[in-house]
Design goal:
Blueprint: E1 8-16, H1 30-47, E2 57-68, E3 77-87, E4 91-100, E5 109-119, E6 124-125, H2 130-137
Antiparallel strand pairs: 1-3, 2-5, 3-4, 4-5, 5-6
Length: about 140
Amino acid sequence: MDDASAYRLVHSVRMPMRWGDMDAMGHVNNTVYFRYLEQARIAWFESMGFPPAFSGIGPVIISAHCTFLKQLRYPGDIDVSTLVGEFGRSSFHTRHQIRRVDEPDTLMAEGGSKVVWVDQRIEKSVALPDEMRVLLTKQPA
């Protein structure tokens, strides 16, 4: 794993937990956490002007993980923070932290992913755009 101190906050988004996110055990299903992380990544990419590129050039997740620390239960809103680490020619690592809005000091889950910039037409990695490199080094607004 990467050194957590090498990551910095780049984005935060609030979203509601939905009734349908829960499972038979009465808490948010573990697969839904990955949806929360995905939505946070997409919101971050869109905020930077890099929306999903289904047939062009853009981000692809090649690995993802999540550690479930405390159960989330409906109803409520969550805040998902996105942090980014060092980046290479075509990739970078993200970390995500999930907290309930009404319990901001309690980390409910943490996860992350490796993002690779890919040309979908040729299915190969390409260099991160210069604009993305600049944005990866900026502090959040």
